[in-house]
Each structure stands twice: as structure tokens, then as C-alpha cells.
Amino acid sequence: MANHGAAAAADVKVRKKKEGQFSLVMKRLSKNKVAMAGLVIILILFLAAILAPYIIPYGYDAMNMAERFASPSLKHLCGTDEMGRDIFSRLLYGGRASLSLGFLATIISTLVGMFIGSLVGYFGGVVDTVVMRFVDILQAIPGILLAIAISACLGSGFVNTIIALSIGGVPMTVRLLRGSIMGVRKMEYLEAAQTINCSVPRLIIKHILPNSISPIIVSVTMGIGNTILMAASLSYIGLGVQPPTPEWGAMLSAARTYMRDYPHMVLFPGLAIAIVVLSLNMLGDGLRDALDPKLKQ
């Protein structure tokens, strides 16, 4: 009974400490104007993508051959493409595919990497040696090349693109979490938890991960932007999301034939990708400084 009481008291203390740390991190983040600007831009883009069916002025697949290659105007804010489709409407709808690919692929790769990295970091030994050699092999292959190879094997499409992008992101998460866990697994609070017969899953989830996850949060934020770039690259070469679904990389690919005569067809999808990646990097830098203010000094 005494052991259970001590464990409950320790859990309450840890919970309060986590809440205090979270509040402190959010307070630091809110003071970073650059990071907050990035967060606001990302939220606006997300809302625009979610509400796209209600705010687009034209159907994303509505063609009007009489208005092919129209320049930006009040009628068509971003002009039209080679089939007379409104580029602004396609950008908003394409944001659904691009943002979904970036976020879903990064989240999946992070969850898989956290599962593997936590086991490797905690147990070490032979498990660590074997798994990390596979990680080294995967990490030796450039991410975009690995994604192209997997997409070529699986075929194009939304789900296959997510799988291709997710696999490439796993090694970095495994390596980051393994390093963090190896730095905390010999701490005294873990030895205290083991003395009260705390199970391994509870030990990892309740005590190790919360104290090792800071690098992962920053990596995820910045990794989303990189994943969106890779998704656009796959679509650009015809291995990602396929027509008629609009996607920013696919829009760039379709416009490359006409970019000299009608640069607006390339300009706006390119700007959309650049703004998203820049905003995520701004937010990631702010999170890094908020989680570890010593780095800023």
C-alpha cells in the first residue's frame, strides 16, 4: 500500500511538473513574434484548405476554353491555366492534398520512428546494434531518391505517396529519440520507478518519452515542410497525386511547358509551397528556442 501511495504521489508530482513546463514553453513561444507569425499563416492555410469547397469562386475542375491562359484579374485572382480552369480555386483545393500529404506522412513516420527508437534506446545491446545498422542503410539513401524508388514500385496515388514519404522519415526519428533516451535512461527517477515494479511500457510512455521528446517536436515541425517539398517533387515527375485531383507539385508540372509565355501558372503554386515551408520553419525555430532557451543564447 505504501508503494502504491508513493507511486500515486510521484505521478501527481510529475503531472504538475509537465503542466508547468508546457505553460512555460507556450509562454516563451507566444513571445516569439516570428514563430507566432508562422503559426498564424499555417492556421490560415489550413482553414482555407478545409473550407475550400465553400470559398472557391469556381469549381477546381471547371473548364472554360474561351478563357485559357487568362492573366490575374479581379475575375480570376491568379489567372487561368491551359484548360481555362481557375488557378486560385485549384490552389485552395490543392492545399488539401499537399498539406494532407505533408502532415500525414510526417505523423506516421514519427509514430513508427518513436516506437522503434524508444525500444532501441531503452534496451540497447544487440537490439540497438541490429536496428541501427538497418537505420544506417536507410539513412545512407537520399530521402527523395528513396521516395522515388518506393513510389515507382507501389505506383502513384495519394495513399502510395504517403507510404513512400513515411518510410524515408523513420530513420531520423529513430536516431533522434534513441540519442535522447540514452541520455536519460540511467537517471535516478527511472531507477525509482523500476523499484516499484513499473512495467516497461509504462516506464517508456510515462517517464522516458516525456523527457526525451523535445527534439522530436522540433523535428516534426520542420519535417512537415520538407515532406511537402518532397510530395511536390514526386507529383512534379508524375509519381505523386494524379489528375484530376489538384496538387501544388502537379500544378507546377503541368505549367512547365507554358512558364515562359504564362509565368503566372508557375508563380502561384510555387509561392504556395514556399510560404508553407517558410512558415513551418519559422514555427520550428520558435519551438526549438522555447523548448531549450539556452540554444538561443
Task: Please characterize this protein's 3D structure.
By secondary structure, the protein is mainly α. Helices cover 74% and strands 0% of the residues. It has 12 helices and no strands. Helix 2 packs across helix 4 and helix 10 packs parallel to helix 11. The longest helix is centred in the middle third of the chain and has 37 residues. The termini are far apart. The N terminus is likely disordered.
How widely separated are the two ends? 47 Å
Q: Name the poorly predicted regions.
A: 1-10
Q: What percent of the residues sit in helical stretches (DSSP H or I)?
A: over 70%
Radius of gyration: 23 Å
Oligomer: single chain
The H/E string reads HHHHHHHHHHHH
Based on Cα principal axes, name the global outline: elongated
Q: What is the tally of helical segments?
A: 12
Instruction: Indicate the structural class.
Output: mainly alpha
Mean pLDDT: 83
Biggest pleated-sheet summary? none
Strand content: under 5%
User: Based on DSSP secondary structure assignment, what is the total number of beta strands?
Assistant: 0
